[in-house]
Amino acid sequence: MLADGQSDEARWCFERAAAYDPTSSRARHRLAQELSDCGQVEQADVLFRESLLQNPDDLDAWVGLGHAMEDLGHAEVASTCYLSVLQRRPDHGLALGQYLAVVKDDVEAASWVAHALQALTRPATPDEAKALVGHGLAKYFDRRQQYEQAAQAGSAANAARRRKASPLNRAALQARIDGIITAYSEDFFTERRHFGLGTDQPVFIVGLPRSGTTLTEQILATHPFMHGAGELPDLARLAVQSLADRRAEPWQAAAQLAEMASRLVGHKYLRALRRNAPPDYPRISDKQPLNYFHLAFAALLFPNARVIHCRRDARDNALSIWMENFNPDQRYATNFDDLAFFIAQERRLMAHWQSVLPLQILGVQYEEVVADLEAQARRLIEFLGAPWDERCLNFHQQDRAVQTPSRWQVRQPIYTKSVGRWRHYREYLPELERALTGEG
Asked: How far is CA 350 from CA 99, 247, 431, 433, in A?
């Protein structure tokens, strides 16, 4: 069911399985993961704790609880969870990488840093473990301004991930963007101006990963009229499900969509968007960054929706992606030349959307937000048609789950140290500046 995009049905099955056999940790963990994926982190937290009450040596439950604690902003508890795994299984690559990424106590971490460095250089260590451990080490060293060591760890991590996952298929990506641009013209949307639902509730926050999408949503979600739904998989999932020709690519879904179907699919998306939101919120945001591939589909479902496009200096953006432990499907993330190509294609597609989409689109530059938070926050709120609220300036005080790599940054007041961060690595990663020359 999950492979077919039927997440609601899959969750129901996991709920039934967990209820049928309360002693089954496997069923409980699958349910907890599904709940976490759709933003119900507190419920996932409860399930992982139930597993640990039954079996304190359940490593999967410790890892799951650690992830939940990270999402809820409890770094020290998350660190303790991962350490509980390592004390039972020191070669657990995921736990070691996550532990190093969040641990604050250098004395406590010293022996595990040494252990991680050995694992990273040991030929017998599997590539996936090297990727996990290397990314954790890179974050550990970066936080301590040990940039040379961070660059070395990141290089080892990305080389290992690249060996396992393969490079970006640039020809396929360019063909995809070419196909989208050719298929979706201004006339295409004019001919379908009666499609979809009239609501203007959805707000799509798009852009490259690590471009400021989480910060933007956090600012908006502090407003009393708005709710942040996080990174929802549902727009892409519904695009796949609505394909009349199953051999077609997901980006072709809008071209195959009929008028009546646009309303039925729109209602399905709204159910997912509102899943964890309080009732009657005028605006709810979906900050899945890569939804920029599916904005034609979004426009046919919700012609009155608004889009916020986040941008950031390409060198800082590329470095931030490269330093992050993204899943292996994000093949562009392991190499600066691939990242430069991916960034250029995103900008080409967004320029096309700006010229043809009927949707209102607001561009937001990360550097401008951190330089003048109030001016940019007011600009965002005005774009969404809401009255100004001073609470938007205190976004870091909001108590909500954040399920992205920026979870720690958005829990701090605004700061500028991430602007020009790439310069710390200029000496150690010369390929970064070389690949991104000319990109702003």
From this structure: 37, 26, 26, 23
DSSP string for 224-288: TTEEE--S-SHHHHHHHHT-SSTTS-GGGHHHH--HHHHHHHHHHHHHHHTTTSPTT-SEEEE--
The backbone torsions φ and ψ at residue 21, rounded to the nearest 5 degrees and listed phi first, read -130, 90
| DSSP conformation class of 419 | T
Classify residue 104 as exposed, middle or buried by CB count within 10 Å of its CB (0-12, 13-18, 19+).
exposed
Q: In a 3-state reduction of DSSP, which class is residue 324? A: coil
Predicted TM-score (pTM) of the model is 0.88
Alpha helices in 3-105 (DSSP H): 7-20, 25-37, 41-54, 59-71, 75-88, 93-102
**What is the per-residue pLDDT across 412-423, written as a single tens digit (0 to 9) for each?**
566 678 899 999
Q: Over the stretch 241-291, which tens digit does the pLDDT of each residue have?
A: 999 887 889 999 999 999 999 999 999 999 999 998 988 899 999 999 999
Distance CA 172, CA 430 (A): 28
DSSP string for residues in 343-396 = HHHHHHHHHHHHHH-SSEEEEEEHHHHHH-HHHHHHHHHHHTT----GGGGGGG
